[in-house]
Amino acid sequence: MTTTHIRPLVAGNWKMNGLAAALGEATAVNEALSGSTIPADVMLCPPATLLSRMAEAMRGSAVRIGAQDCHPAASGAHTGDISAEMVKDAGASAVIVGHSERRADHAELDRIVRAKAVAAHRAGLTAIVCIGETRGERAAGLTIDVVNRQLKSSLPDGVTGANTVVAYEPVWAIGTGLTPSTDDVAEVHAAIRAHLTGRFPAEGDRVRILYGGSVKPSNAKELMSLPNVNGALVGGASLKADDFLAIIRAYA
Ligand code: 13P
Predict the structure, then answer these.
(1) Ligand 1 centroid to residue 174 C-alpha, Å
(2) Residue 212 Cα: closest atom of ligand 1
(3) Mean pLDDT of the chain
(4) Which end of the chain is more exposed for a tag (fewer CB within 10 A), N or C?
């Protein structure tokens, strides 16, 4: 089933990039989009240090702000961590959870990702839940199994089209310039949609499923026009306003 009624989302994940001077890129995105009629939501996910300043700079604009992680607890003795409530308080409306870099760097298991998604919902944030297979898992023909296992264990109960976005990011495609074939992307997104509609019958066909992994201006239109691809989660190409705008304009 295609889900063309879903308003797409193009989100930029700045990862651990961006000093205060980089706020100019966000401002440039905002200025270029103001008054435009591109039928997509746009979001930037800066590092935590820039969350509140970027939220302030984007106040009243169409550019939404997301964080890159949150702790499952609302507050407490967790040095260096940031709660979903703090993310919300900083002016964000969403938070990425379970990015493969956090799963790898911080040994985040599916149950931790799920707890973080629960925290996001508790705080009134949209959880952008990331999943995706490694190169070895794809080579072994395990992609659909891996994605289904991650969905089953990482998504909490109560998922709705408003409170959750799923981002399919094959680990081997992140930052490598490699992307799966369009058939492969469509196959995985169809499996994700089937999982969502099976588990959440009333809302599963409203949840946005983003593709992420080496999305750039030259491949955005093709990837984002595939069935069940409801936008993109963009890493490196979101750091420069011109590249990010060119990807957003895939929907123009
Ligand atoms: P790249 O677009 O740099 O491959 O990163 C994708 C990603 O990990 C977004 O979360």
Answers:
(1) 5
(2) 6
(3) 97
(4) N
Question: Given pLDDT bands bounded at 50, 70 and 90, which one contains residue 215?
Answer: very high
Confidence of residue 36 (pLDDT cuts 50, 70, 90): confident
- Specify the residue with its C-alpha closest to ligand 1, atom 2: 235
Q: Does 37 have pLDDT greater than 90?
A: no
From the alpha carbon of 167, which atom of ligand 1 is closest? 10
pLDDT at position 179 is: 97
Task: Specify the CATH number for 9-16+47-92+101-239; select among 2.40.10.270, 3.40.390.10, 3.20.20.70, 3.30.565.10.
Answer: 3.20.20.70
- Residues near ligand 1 (Cβ within 6 A): 13, 99, 169, 174-175, 212-215, 233-237
Q: How far apart are CA 201 and CA 122, in angstroms?
A: 22
Segment holding 129, helix H or strand E: strand 126-131
130, 169, 224, best to mutate for ligand 1 pocket (most atoms within 8 Å of CB): 169
CA 245 to chain centre: 17
Residue 169 and residue 131 in contact, taking contact as beta carbons nearer than 8 Å: yes
> How confident is the model at residue 128, as a pLDDT?
99
